[in-house]
Amino acid sequence: MAVINYITQVIFDFGAAATVTAECERLGIRRPLLVTDRGIVAAGIVDRVLPHLAHVAVRVFDGTPSNPTEAAVMQAAHALREHGGDGLVAVGGGSSIDLAKAVAIVATHPGSLVDYATIHGGSSRIGAGVLPVIAMPTTAGTGSEVARGAIVVVADGRKLGFHSWHLVPRVAICDPDLTLDLPPRLTAATGMDAIAHCIETYLSKAVNPPADAIAYDGLLRGVAHIERAVIDGHSREARWHMMSASMQGAMAFQKGLGAVHSLSHALGGLPVNPHHGTLNAVLLPEVVRFNEAEVPQKVAAVARAFGVENGAQLAGAIRELNRRIGLPPGLAAMDIAPESYGTVVEHALKDHCHATNPRLASATDYLAILHASS
């Protein structure tokens, strides 16, 4: 079993879930709130984790929505206070982990959650007193278990980022066993989320060679194993590599993401509640095509990972991969109407990922990407 100290402590291997009690004890957590969602409960995953928490007083909150909301954060914070909780164990995908991070803020900081949003200068207001979070991912996609950020849909409908090194989970327990029963469609969508993280952070012009190396290695793992994970969900090899690709993408995206994410964050606040990873998969082809003029050598390197030679071929290869793993061909198939694009672009231009895209996009550029991705 590997124990990795990079950004945070990562316990990575089949069976790693059994370490959660020891990690609670190490961090001084005696009354954790276990944050998850009803799908994870129904799948029996929480019942597999709870025996490993037999020596602490745990309460389960299963009200995490598919895109975490401020309302759900406040409900979980209320449950935490009723329980007298002193820490959080997040069991689920990025939504549960992000919700737990937001609860860690509101449970220990005054004012409203929005006060701590990155675009409002809130990062510097998040202090070391946040409650400790243990993250146990059940998908291989967001990488939130090793990331300093959380994404939450706030009360006015905006999908905002909250970022601080104090929000990084104190330990990430990455057990591929917890992903073996993930359905094919969710495996595909979360896997493409991980691949998008690796690509966007690799293409970002910020200087961070170690992050580039981690991201590119994660990309190679993701491209090589995503189809096997979708077709044969119980392939331990494919699940191990996809969980690693997810973790590596998030370890690297401390460097910054780009236009795929600025648009998907904005689209994620729409009433149709589109899945984040699916949005990334649909947007990725046109964004890499857009970025090729600015970083042609890096786009060519990404293209080679997909077995093609240039940005135009890369866009086609990503679309073909999406098709093979059962993801929709465009935004229209996700019930996203062009009438919403004006508002989406307005929010994307203000998103924290906008400035780190290698080629700065204008409103016109964003509109063109959306229409080409329809």
Briefly summarize what is shown.
The protein has 374 residues and is an alpha/beta fold.
What's the helix and strand layout?
Layout: E1 2-6, E2 8-12, H1 20-27, E3 32-35, H2 38-42, H3 45-49, E4 59-61, H4 70-83, E5 87-92, H5 94-106, E6 133-137, E7 149-153, E8 159-163, E9 171-174, H6 184-203, H7 209-231, H8 236-252, H9 259-268, H10 276-291, H11 296-305, H12 311-324, H13 341-350, H14 363-372
Parallel strand pairs: 2-9, 3-4, 3-5, 5-6, 6-9
Antiparallel strand pairs: 1-2, 7-8
Helix pairs in contact: 4-5, 6-7, 6-8, 6-10, 7-8, 9-10, 9-13, 10-12, 11-12, 13-14
Give the strand order of the largest sheet, numbering strands 1, 2, ... along the chain: 1-2-9-6-5-3-4
User: What structural class do helix, strand and pairing data support?
Assistant: alpha/beta
Topology as a string of helices (H) and strands (E): EEHEHHEHEHEEEEHHHHHHHHH
| CA(first)-CA(last) distance | 44 Å
Shape: globular
Please give the share of residues in helix: 40-55%
Radius of gyration: 19 Å
Biggest sheet layout: 7 strands, mixed
Mean pLDDT: 94
Question: Explain this structure to me?
Answer:
This protein is an alpha/beta fold and 374 residues long. It has 14 helices and nine strands. The protein has helices spanning 20-27, 38-42, 45-49, 70-83, 94-106, 184-203, 209-231, 236-252, 259-268, 276-291, 296-305, 311-324, 341-350, 363-372; strands spanning 2-6, 8-12, 32-35, 59-61, 87-92, 133-137, 149-153, 159-163, 171-174. A seven-stranded mixed sheet has the order 1-2-9-6-5-3-4, sandwiched between helices. A two-stranded antiparallel ribbon has the order 7-8. Strand 5, helix 5 (94-106) and strand 6 (133-137) form a beta-alpha-beta unit. Helix 6 (184-203) packs antiparallel against helix 7 (209-231) and helix 9 crosses helix 13 (341-350). The longest helix has 23 residues, at 209-231. The chain is globular and about 55 Å long.
